[in-house]
Specification:
The structure holds 2 protein chains of 2 kinds. By secondary structure, chain A is α+β, with helices and mostly antiparallel strands. In chain A, 29% of the residues lie in helices and 31% in strands. Chain B is an alpha/beta fold. Helices cover 41% and strands 14% of the residues of chain B. Chain B is built from 8 helices and 6 strands, in the order βαββαβαααβαβαα. In chain B, helix 2 links the parallel strand 3 and strand 4. In chain B, helix 3 packs antiparallel against helix 4 and helix 4 packs across helix 5. The chains are: A alpha+beta, B alpha/beta. The interface between A and B is medium-sized, with 18 and 22 residues.
């Protein structure tokens, strides 16, 4: 496993729009708590209706978001994020996300999400 | 079940070249898969003998689309899997029994010389100049440069291809696309496939060179969608 496989870097996370406002030191701590994952083209990452316990940011590649009842919804690119609804609302996954191309994501568990990411949504709706 | 579309990139690019079409097709309900071939994008060259064609079986049944070297892989995939490749789109494909012109051979010789001395930047610029319209070179440059770096870093194991079949055996409904400004070799290959395959149709795109999905995307997308919806 290469060193890059272990986690995300602060620099990579600074390119995620949602996280861009976090101070450098906070971003560095979040990066240390995130896990990097390579996903092959065509593979599913989250499935609609399943329990979800991780939040994801897209570092490279493209993913498709779809819902059973509404079909294709949107395409995610580097800088985008997903998986926040199930964690924030404590509900099953509301959509499925599948890799269109080879993809690199970084993800974190609920505890890290609650500490670093959830407050950003509070700011957004305020 | 949504219809699956496999997009196979050119040998001067990687899966990122399909960003526009992957988005367009996904939004229209197709299940898109755009892999990187070994030695491109996120895929290192394996240390053991490998195949570009065999891994495509994992994505079938599907419509298969390939550009340039990816077109050669797509054609070989369709000939090897006639029951599970539903439709085929070959964009400026290469083909194994083509008699390449002296012009192309001299380009490959120069490309090899540059790579042998490790001048990846010069090899990249040479390749872009030969194959791509100026306005898409910035898009392709990182893909080609990273592919060269990946290929130079890897070993050089044998590549296995399925047993060749004559083009006349290709019964899959096939759209062949070539740029009007592409090299004569690729225009000749496109014309030959359209002539010899019983269910193939040729479309020549004005203003495009070797990567029409990037160079003339509006016309390319129109032809692609029309073929997906109405066939040959």
């Amino acid at each position: 496993m290469s060193p890059r496989a272990a986690g995300a870097t602060q620099h990579e996370l600074s390119r995620i729009g949602l996280l861009a406002t976090l101070p450098g030191e906070t971003l560095a701590r979040l990066a240390r708590n995130m896990t990097r994952e390579e996903i092959p083209a065509g593979a599913g990452v989250v499935s609609e209706g399943e329990d979800g316990d991780r939040f994801y940011v897209v570092l490279s590649g493209m993913l498709a978001v779809s819902q059973r009842t509404r079909g294709a919804q949107s395409v995610l690119r580097p800088g985008d994020y997903f998986g926040e609804v199930a964690l924030a609302m404590n509900m099953p996954r509301t959509a499925s996300v599948r890799a269109l191309t080879p993809v690199t994501v970084a993800s974190c568990d609920r505890e890290t999400f609650d500490e670093f990411v959830r407050p950003l949504f509070a700011d957004e709706s305020a | 079940m949504p219809e699956r579309v496999v997009l196979i990139h050119a040998g001067i690019a990687d899966s990122r070249m399909w960003e526009r079409q992957a988005t367009l097709l996904s939004e229209r309900g197709y299940e898109v898969v755009a892999p990187d071939l070994p030695g491109f994008g996120a895929e290192p060259i394996p240390s053991e003998p490998y195949s570009f064609v065999d891994p495509m079986k994992n994505f079938l049944p599907a419509t298969v689309v390939g550009n340039s070297f990816g077109g050669q892989v797509a054609l070989a995939t369709a000939l090897a899997n006639p029951k599970t490749v539903n439709k085929l789109v070959l964009i400026a494909p290469a083909i194994d029994d083509h008699e390449w012109s002296d012009d192309l051979r001299s380009y490959w010789r120069r490309e090899n010389e540059l790579l042998e001395v490790g001048d990846v930047n010069a090899a990249t610029e040479l390749t872009l100049e030969v194959f791509a319209q100026p306005h898409v070179r910035d898009t392709l440059r990182p893909m080609q440069r990273e592919a060269y770096e990946l290929q130079l870093a890897g070993e050089d194991p044998d590549v296995m291809w399925p047993q060749g079949k004559p083009i006349a055996e290709l019964r899959t409904p096939t759209l062949v696309i070539v740029g009007e400004e592409d090299r004569p070799d690729f225009r000749a290959i496109a014309e030959r496939i359209a002539r010899e395959a019983p269910n193939a149709r040729l479309e020549v795109i004005a203003g495009a060179r070797h990567v029409p999905s990037l160079e003339t995307p509006d016309e390319f997308d129109r032809l692609l969608l029309e073929f997906f919806e109405h066939g040959v």
